[in-house]
Amino acid sequence: MDAANPPDEEAGFEDYRAKVAGTNISGQTLLATDYLNHFNEIVMLLDMLPDMPDMIEECKLWQPKSYKEHFADSTFSDRQLAIEAYDRVPSRFRRPFEETIGQLTALIVGGVERLDADIAAGAESAALGETCRALSRAAQALMDCASAIIHGSERAMVQVEIDRLLGR
After folding, report:
1. pLDDT by position in tens, the chain (length 168)
2. 164: which residues sit within 8 A by CB, 6+ positions away?
3. pTM, full prediction
4. CB 134 within 8 A of CB 165
5. Best CA proximity match to 155, nearest among 29, 24, 12
């Protein structure tokens, strides 16, 4: 038994570690980096926004998706296994992962709302670019944190770190 996992988590975790062997799902955490593609899409759109402000409409179409929702809609080859394994992710990884994804989702949703208002108010391209770069930088840092958790880190970012990235 792994001393880091509570006994009630251990049995299902070990069973799924064997099932995910040889897939793109981490055997250490039972999480897959493919989920981050959902966030990469909106970050790419945000990066284009200063040069193409009309892309805000595309940004506004982006909707948050849970881990399981992403894989249910995905073409990921092991999508069903990713969905099933998620319920067996040890809490020492799941808690910081969900916290990080929650921070990332709130950042993106709030950022798109702010950018939409700025564009509607006629914000200059330079100011728009600055906001987009800060938002993109913070989103990337959170995605890097989520990726580290997927690969075995147990640490989420704290709000002060996110605020620092946004220049607050």
Report:
1. 344 556 566 778 888 999 999 999 999 999 999 999 999 999 999 999 999 999 999 999 999 999 999 999 999 999 999 999 999 999 999 999 999 999 999 999 999 999 999 999 999 889 999 999 999 999 999 999 999 999 998 765 555 555 565 565
2. none
3. 0.86
4. yes
5. 29
**144: its two tokens:** 């890097």
CB atoms within 10 A of CB 28: 14
Look at the block and give the residue holding tokens 């929702």. Answer: 69
Other beta carbons less than 10 A from residue 93's beta carbon: 23
When computed from its CA atoms, the radius of gyration of the chain, rounded to whole angstroms, is 18
**CB neighbours (10 Å) of residue 50?**
20
Q: Tokens in use for 23?
A: 């897939």
* DSSP structure class, residue 25: B
Residue 91's closest CA among 152, 3, 9? Answer: 9
The residues near 136 (Cβ < 8 Å, ≥ 6 apart) are 43, 46, 47
